[in-house]
UniProtKB/TrEMBL annotation:
Cross-referenced SUPFAM superfamilies: 6-phosphogluconate dehydrogenase C-terminal domain-like, NAD(P)-binding Rossmann-fold domains
Name of the protein in its database record: prephenate dehydrogenase
Keyword field: Amino-acid biosynthesis, Aromatic amino acid biosynthesis, NAD, Oxidoreductase, Tyrosine biosynthesis
Catalytic activity line of the entry: prephenate + NAD(+) = 3-(4-hydroxyphenyl)pyruvate + CO2 + NADH
InterPro entries, sorted: 6-PGluconate_DH-like_C_sf, NAD(P)-bd_dom_sf, PDH_C, PDH_N, Preph/Arog_dehydrog, Prephen_DH
The protein's annotated pathway: Amino-acid biosynthesis; L-tyrosine biosynthesis; (4-hydroxyphenyl)pyruvate from prephenate (NAD(+) route): step 1/1
Lineage of origin: Bacteria, Pseudomonadati, Pseudomonadota, Alphaproteobacteria, Rhodobacterales
Family to which this protein belongs: Belongs to the prephenate/arogenate dehydrogenase family.
GO biological process: tyrosine biosynthetic process
Coiled-coil region(s): none
Residue ranges of the region described as Disordered: 292-313
Length: 313
C-alpha cells in the first residue's frame, strides 16, 4: 500500500503521538515519521522505543519538509507550538491536532501561516496512561475520530487526513467544533471531573481510606480511580479550554444530583426507581446498537449505527 503522506511530523510523543507513530507504521500510512517532544527525557525514550524513524531536536526541525504535521501536545500548549513551527512549515502542508477540545484549539491555530491547510481532529480513544511508553498501535482500531473542519477549508486536505485516520483503524466522522465541545463535555469531560471528585472525596475520608477503601473497593469505585489517574496537565487544560460547555453540563448534573439527594432524604423510592430504570435503558440501548460492553470501549464505533439525533431533537 502506498503511504498517505511522505513525511509525517508528530509534535508531542506521549500516549497519542506515540500511538499514531506505531499505528501509522503498522498501516504503512507514512513514508517517514519524524517526532519531537519538549523534554529531552521523552525524546530519549522515543528513540529507545523506536517510535519514529527520526526524533528531531526542535519542533521546527521536525516539521521542515513534512506534508502532514499533527500536534499531539496538551491543549494549553497548542498556541505556543503552532507559533514555533509556523515559519518552518512548507506551502500546502496539512496541519492537524488531536486535542480533546476543538473551539479553543482552532482559535490557537490561527497563529499558523495562511499557506497551510488546517484540519482539526480528535480521536475518541485513550487510556489513563501518558508518556511515550504508553502508546500502542491498536489504540485507534474501530474508534471514532472526529474531524471538525474550518469553514472554507481545503476539502482535499480534509479528505487526505480522513484517509490517514482510516488507515490507522479509526472511523472518521465530521462535526462542528461547538457541537464537539458540548458532546464531549457530556461524554468525557464532566465524567472525568466527577471521577476526580469521587476519588478526592474518598481520599478526604482518610479515616476510611487509609485502611479500608482500597482493600474493599468494588468495581464501580475502581473504575473511578482508573479515570482519576489520568494526566493532570492534560485534564487541567481541557477544563480551562472548554469552560462554557463543561460548566453547562456540570450545572445540569448538580440539579439532577440534588433531585436524587432529595428523593433519598424524603424516601421517594418511585423517583429513584424510575430514574435508574431510564439510565439502565440507555446502557442497554448502547449494547443493542452493537457497542462493546466494557467501560474502556465506550468510544468504539458501533458495528451497527445507532440513531444519531441532531442537537435540536
Ligand atoms: N489521553 C487521552 O485519553 C487522549 C485522547 C484523545 C486526545 N487526547 C489529546 O491528545 C493530546 C496529547 O495527550 P496525550 O495523552 O498524548 O498526553 P501525554 O502527556 O502522553 O503526551 C504529551 C506530549 O506532549 C509533549 N509536550 C507537552 N508540552 C509540549 C510543548 N510545549 N512542546 C512540545 N511538546 C510538548 C510532552 O513531552 C509529551 O510528549 C492532548 O491534547 C489531549 O487532549 C488525549
Ligand atoms: O479511556 C479513557 O481512559 C479515556 O479517558 C479516553 C477519553 C474518553 O474520555 O473517552 C479521554 C479523553 C479524550 O479526549 C478521548 C478519550
Amino acid at each position: 500500500m502506498s503511504a498517505h503522506f511522505e513525511r509525517v511530523a508528530l509534535i508531542g510523543l506521549g500516549l497519542i503521538g506515540g500511538s499514531i507513530a506505531l499505528a501509522a507504521r503498522r498501516a504503512g500510512a507514512a513514508g517517514r515519521i519524524v517526532g519531537y517532544a519538549r523534554s529531552e527525557q521523552t525524546r530519549a525514550a522515543a528513540r529507545r522505543l523506536g517510535l519514529c524513524d527520526e526524533v528531531a531536536e526542535s519542533a521546527a526541525e521536525a516539521v521542515a519538509g513534512a506534508d502532514l504535521v499533527i500536534l499531539c501536545v496538551p491543549v494549553g500548549a497548542m498556541r505556543a507550538v503552532a507559533a514555533e513551527i509556523g515559519p518552518a512549515l512548507a506551502e500546502g502542508v496539512v496541519v492537524s491536532d488531536v486535542g480533546s477540545v476543538k473551539g479553543a484549539v482552532i482559535a490557537a491555530l490561527e497563529v499558523l501561516p495562511a499557506h497551510v491547510h488546517v484540519v482539526p481532529a480528535h480521536p475518541l480513544a485513550g487510556t489513563e496512561h501518558s508518556g511515550p511508553e504508553s502508546g500502542f498501535a491498536e489504540l485507534f482500531d474501530n474508534r471514532y475520530c472526529l474531524v471538525t473542519p474550518l469553514p472554507g477549508g481545503d476539502s482535499g486536505a480534509k479528505g487526505r487526513l480522513a484517509d490517514f485516520w482510516r488507515a490507522l483503524g479509526a472511523n472518521v466522522e465530521e462535526m462542528a467544533p461547538e457541537r464537539h465541545d458540548l458532546v464531549l463535555a457530556v461524554t468525557s469531560h464532566a465524567p472525568h471531573l466527577i471521577a476526580y471528585t469521587m476519588v478526592g472525596v474518598a481520599d478526604d475520608m482518610r479515616r476510611v481510606t487509609k485502611s479500608e477503601v482500597i482493600k474493599y473497593s468494588a468495581a464501580g469505585f475502581r473504575d473511578f480511580t482508573r479515570i482519576a489517574a489520568s494526566d493532570p496537565t492534560m485534564w487541567r487544560d481541557v477544563f480551562l479550554n472548554n469552560k462554557a460547555a463543561t460548566l453547562e453540563i456540570l450545572g445540569r448534573f448538580t440539579e439532577e444530583l440534588f433531585a436524587l439527594q432529595r428523593a433519598i432524604r424524603t424516601g421517594d423510592g418511585d423517583q429513584l426507581h424510575d430514574y435508574f430504570t431510564r439510565t439502565r435503558a440507555i446502557r442497554r440501548g448502547i449494547i443493542d446498537a452493537g457497542q462493546d460492553t466494557a467501560a474502556p470501549d465506550f468510544g468504539r464505533a458501533p458495528t451497527r449505527k445507532p440513531d444519531v439525533r441532531k442537537p435540536s431533537e
